[in-house]
Structure formats: structure tokens, C-alpha cells
Design a protein that fits this description.
Radius of gyration: 24 Å
Shape: elongated
Structural class: alpha/beta
Number of strands: 23
């Protein structure tokens, strides 16, 4: 528990046990589940935590409220890592009213069988706690359809749900007055790329809706509470949701026996010689896919290489292209590299996927038969020159 503003307390939990977020994304630094309590004439809890941490969460609330009963639970987002302790909270405070929009309340009934003592709010609805007034703004598809954010008018605090959140447990502090924005930057981009990346247009609409609010604190459901870094975190989300990118290249490949890998190393070296300073190289058979996606959101260029495998793309390469397609990544320059031993198919499959997704691609590609790097030397040079010039 920590006091983050007048009458507002952080009562979240650090999870250093879970290894995969959503059973998909690596958590090498853990993750926090953030919840907040507004202690006024009435007491409101904003979001909860993952169910397995309910006991510690309840202790945090009781300390923050000094034993007073909770009057309201504000549910900004129904994903179970934030709604998982609703049942425990309702059992402890049976008279507590649960506040959410229509879609939220339907999900609460569907997940937890709770339909009584609820308060439905709409876009722009308010709730007075005494000195503090909460205003609710719907933010659908950031990143679930029921998502909303809650604004505390007196404290100028935005309880933003998953927006502006990041991976990484909180190391000994809660706010960015204690924790460095730079230490969480990569985890914010990685979180956005993996979890929110598909929803750039809804994020832009939400940013526009909230742009006129004076905000002194952003209290997200993951990561630090932002005070000093508000302009930075809003800029990050604005740039990522517009698919803005830096000049740089991600080189991602699949390679069964090292020949395609050697080809990609050569391409990367020549890109560097052409003045491309930011280059990230990933072997997709061993890379953390969340880090690959993070860098694809950061950099304009993507070179993808695959051997022909069963007349298709190498499976990890195919999986990466699917993840890019799912996130509707825009404004990227794709360069395709294929290799084969006796029958060429990789470049054809790359072309089919690029046409289907409408990706910007170079007219020239590189294809290597067996391990003939020297034979493809001129083709590599043509490809690298065109690619670096188009970044």
C-alpha cells in the first residue's frame, strides 16, 4: 500500500511468479496488477487484481481504508488479471456497489454470476464520493469492448486501465518519482506490441477524447504510476498507435542448418555499411517473439528470411507473419529473403502474404540455392542498396 495522492492509495500486487502473461508472453521481470482506493466520504476501489493474489490484496485495502467499508468498486476492464478478485471483494463487503458500463456488467454476470447491487454508467457519467468526483469515459477496444477509464476531477488522476501500462514488476517503488521511466520503456513498448498493438485506431480515438483533460497522474493497471513522465508515456502510445517508426531494420529469420542465418548476417553487415545504424537480428527458432514484435513496432524496416519447408515458409517465420498481420501493422517496409535446396517456394509464399495484407515491399528480393552466398552476391547488394534507400 502506498499513498500516491491526497486520499488516493495504491493497493496493487507484484507478481514475480507467473512466467507467461496470458500464457503467451514472457515475464522475465514479472508484472504488477495495479489497484487503487479513493478514501473520501465514500470509499471506492478502482479495479482489482488476479484472483490468486486476492488475500494480500484484501489486506492492502483494509490498511488503506483503516477498516472502513468499501462503498463502490469501479471496474474499468474485465480481463481476469484485473477483475479476478471481484468475488472476494464482494464477499468481504456485501453492500458494495459495483460500477461499470453495460458491457462490463454483462461480463461480470457472465464471469462471476454477480448481477445485484450494480450501478450502470455511460460515457460522461459521474459519481460523487464527497470531495472527489469520478467521471467515466468509454474507451472501447483499448483493448476489450467494455473498456473504460475513470477520471478523478479533484486529484486530476486518470485511472487508465491497461492503457499506458507495461510489463515489469515494480522494484521497490510505485511512482516514477521512485522508478525510472527509461527502465520501463522497453517493457511498455513490448506490452503495447503484444497486447494492444491491433487496436491503433481505438487508441487514437481514446487519446483524442481524453486530450482536453488536465492530468497530473496516470494510474494504469500495470507498471508504474506516472507523474513526471506523463508527456512521455502519452507520446509513446500516440506514436505506437499511429504506427510511427524510427529508421532501423529488424532482420528476422528461420534457418535449419545455418545457411539462411549466414545470408542474413551478410545482409545485416551490408545494411550497416549503407549507414543503417539501428539493426536488430533475431533467429525465430529461439527468439522471444514478444521482443521481435516490440522492435517491429519501433523500426520501419523488416527483413524476413525463410528456407522453403514442405513447400511452405519455415513454421516460426510463418507464425511471425501471422502475428504481424493480426496486429495490422502499417507503414513498414518489408524485404523478403528465401532459400531452398531443390525447389523454391519461400519467396512465392512471402509474396502471397504481402499481397493479401497490402504490405509495402521492395520489387527485388534475395533467393539463395543451397549455400551459394557468392552466387547471390550481386543480388544481395542490389537488395541492400534498395532497402536502405527506401527506409
Amino acid at each position: 500500500m502506498k499513498n500516491i495522492a491526497d486520499k488516493i492509495f495504491y493497493v496493487g500486487i507484484n507478481d514475480r511468479v507467473t512466467h507467461l502473461f496470458e500464457r503467451l508472453w514472457s515475464l522475465r521481470r514479472g508484472v504488477s496488477y495495479n489497484s487503487y482506493v479513493v478514501v473520501d466520504e465514500k470509499i471506492a476501489v478502482v479495479d482489482t487484481v488476479e484472483a490468486s493474489f486476492a488475500s494480500a490484496f484484501m489486506q492492502n485495502i483494509e490498511r488503506a481504508t483503516a477498516g472502513r467499508p468499501v462503498d463502490y468498486l469501479i471496474v474499468n476492464h474485465m480481463e481476469p488479471d484485473h477483475s479476478g478478485a471481484i468475488v472476494a471483494l464482494r464477499q468481504r463487503y456485501p453492500q458494495m456497489k459495483i460500477v461499470g458500463n453495460a458491457k462490463t456488467l454483462q461480463m461480470i454476470n457472465g464471469y462471476y454470476g454477480i448481477s445485484d447491487n450494480v450501478v450502470e454508467v455511460a460515457d460522461g457519467s459521474t459519481l460523487s464520493l464527497g470531495g472527489e468526483t469520478l467521471t467515466f469515459y468509454l474507451a472501447p477496444m483499448v483493448h476489450w469492448p467494455e473498456t473504460m477509464v475513470t477520471y478523478g476531477n479533484n486529484a486530476k488522476i486518470l485511472f487508465s486501465g491497461d492503457a499506458f501500462g507495461c510489463f515489469g514488476a515494480l522494484d521497490g517503488g510505485v511512482t516514477d518519482e521512485e522508478l525510472s521511466f527509461e527502465d520501463y520503456y522497453d517493457e511498455m513498448v513490448r506490452y503495447y506490441a503484444c497486447i494492444v498493438g491491433k487496436y491503433g485506431s481505438p487508441v487514437q480515438k481514446a487519446l483524442q477524447k481524453l486530450s482536453s483533460l488536465p492530468i497530473d497522474i496516470i494510474a494504469a493497471t500495470h507498471g508504474p504510476v506516472w507523474k513526471r513522465s506523463i508527456e512521455k508515456v502519452v507520446r509513446v502510445y500516440d506514436e505506437l498507435s499511429r504506427y510511427s517508426a524510427q529508421r532501423g531494420v529488424v532482420v528476422a529469420y528461420g534457418s535449419m542448418y545455418g545457411n539462411t542465418a549466414a545470408l542474413c548476417e551478410e545482409i545485416a553487415c551490408r545494411l550497416r555499411e549503407k549507414g543503417v545504424e539501428k539493426i536488430k537480428i533475431y533467429d525465430l527458432s529461439s527468439a522471444d517473439i514478444s521482443e521481435v514484435l516490440r522492435d517491429i513496432f519501433l523500426y520501419r524496416g523488416l527483413v524476413v528470411a525463410s528456407p522453403t519447408y514442405n513447400n511452405e515458409l519455415f513454421p516460426p517465420v510463418r507464425e511471425l507473419l501471422e502475428k504481424i498481420s493480426e496486429r495490422t501493422v502499417k507503414g513498414r517496409l518489408f524485404g523478403f529473403v528465401g532459400s531452398y535446396t531443390w525447389a523454391s517456394a519461400a519467396l512465392k509464399r512471402f509474396g502471397e502474404k504481402a499481397e493479401k495484407c497490402g504490405w509495402e515491399t521492395l520489387p527485388c528480393c534475395v533467393e539463395m540455392k543451397q549455400s551459394s552466398l557468392s552466387v547471390t552476391d550481386e543480388l544481395i547488394d542490389t537488395f541492400v542498396t534498395a532497402f536502405s534507400g527506401a527506409l
